[in-house]
Amino acid sequence: MMKQRIEYISIINAIAIIAVMIGHLDVTGVNQDPNTPIANVIEKFGSFQMPLFMCVSGFLFTMTSGYKRTYADLIKYKVKRLLIPFWFLSLFTFAFKLCLPSSMLEHGVGFNANYIFKIFFVPFRGPVPHLWFVISLFTIFLLSPILKKTVQQKTSMIGTFFVLVLFTFTPPLLKIIDFEYLAIDKTLSMLLWFYLGMVMQIEKVSYKLDTWNAVGFFCVIYIILLYFIQIPIIGSLACALSGILFVFSLAHKIADYKPNLFGSWRNYTYQIYLMHMYPIMVYKYLYKIHLFPNDDIWFVSIWISSLICSIALPTIVSKVVEKTSNNLKILIGL
Fold it and tell me: Are 190 and 140 in contact (CB under 8 A)?
């Protein structure tokens, strides 16, 4: 049972990081490009990636030793696991981008006090925008005693869900007043999914999804909500929820038949998240200079190639670093 449980969780992690990369693989630089309709469908299919990634984080937190650690030990560990890689990769990318011509950069950098401030305190406007997730996750762990307290009783659990659903309505308002410091706007929209992962583990919801009926049901619901029924906010919440439940149920069944699917790279999903944008940056630039024709045939080839490189490069780097000193491991969250 333990072996199978670890395998299905590893498969969820792998699917989650693939979903994240699907959302980031807009190599044409245009999410709704009329020249690449296939690209538009693929990009939209991964729309639940960040709720899924956050849900998995809450799920793993609740089932691992971190849940029982003292608050001081937990935060100390998360500083090492989350903040140090964030600082290192942000500064590394900042220095790297300073050496490149601005024409190559989708997200430019500046060597001034305002931009230096953004590197540390406004991650979505920094040199590696997708690392906002790391800061949001750290902020949520700062709130973990409150979240742990509320899951102990059904009444407080339901009340917390209600409050967190309301939080998903606040990020648009925070954007209007430019409240992106420490990714607070995004953290408020992600708290719901982290908490959902905690509840799914505590209530053993995941094992109730271990049926082919669940796989088919949530897959159909997700596709209907994604492509045919679009309701602002509430519809997107329902769509993300059905996508998460679909992945959890699918991972169970995959583990029954293909427990080693995705190979050894699935052990480095966090490192893949941290570093996957570097190969994508290269492919985006190649598209930008019109090295490849902008049509579906070329797009599919480049898309698949960039996906493979985005998995392979971080995995290779991680395996090499694993054989070196602990100080280097910390820099990429190993």
Answer: yes
